[in-house]
């Protein structure tokens, strides 16, 4: 059995695949297998794979009969692997020289189920160079160890979580194969990373984030146009994928909550739901043209329940209302824009609540909390009237509950940017 199994899903990308594979086969640590899985490419990808296999007997070729998406393609490769450890690499990225030797040395000293290592971002365009530093920051893990239930509870937390991508992580082989065997045979792209991280976290006993480990080379800007706006169809696909990931997670919990014992399944699913709908609605807010936003909102509501969508709208209300509340000059142009935006998103949220008759007893604490603080900021700033029986406002604004505006915080912007890039790189 090899020490490392490196799995590469491939689809219509013969241009960069040799560079990716050679970065692995040229590693100083030689005890490995490279499993390339062709997702029914229509170009010369499989011919390129055959050439790579002829060069090095450690390269193993697999091929899907039909185009099946990233989840099934990775599943095909991982379940066929034999290594003590499994790594997943995207077809146009690389491993840095010495990465496997460094990972092996660290694993020998620090046994764990999941190893999270860092990224070096190589920018291919001027726009990518502008984003590279922030992307590196976003993808570089905070050095720490986590045990048992802490892993899943931390990864999708609102604060101090870690990214939900399966590349630049190394998994114990038995864990990876068990997790991918438990996954359904279904088509899922982009959001399959989040889904599989949830499953792997639920099964894992230990996690280690490695300090000073920029061993995954991420090529930013290869074949993508950064900063471009979404089309309605692309947004609809993205929203549907996010929602499907949540359905699969709910199905996984329903099937395995009795054999995987933990007391916080509801809270962990809620964490994932909140991160997924946040991603969907940030794409709607930041990347759809203004003329497409009304239709885009209706399409989001086809995929997501009204309370989830309204929660995100109230997040925008909260942020804009807070910015207006704490402004030194409420008559300034920027303050007036914040005022208009707060009231605009309030109308959108209330219209959805009216149309769908959202019950006050809905079991979505995130939605209820966001609505409560949004309404607090609106009344504190005088943008809406305070009900006669409402409690008196705080004497100081609640600086912990909002920022100016929080939905454009660096981590959220980078997460959305990364997901946009991943969408283009895996849109097969």
TrEMBL record:
It comes from the Bacteria. InterPro entries: Glyco_trans_2-like, Glycosyltransf_2. Residues 383-407 are annotated as: Disordered. CDD domains: Glyco_tranf_GTA_type. Residues 5-135 form the Glycosyltransferase 2-like domain. PANTHER family: GLYCOSYLTRANSFERASE, GLYCOSYLTRANSFERASE 2-LIKE DOMAIN-CONTAINING PROTEIN. This is Glycosyltransferase family 2 protein. It comes from Bifidobacterium miconis. The lineage of its organism: Bacteria, Bacillati, Actinomycetota, Actinomycetes, Bifidobacteriales.
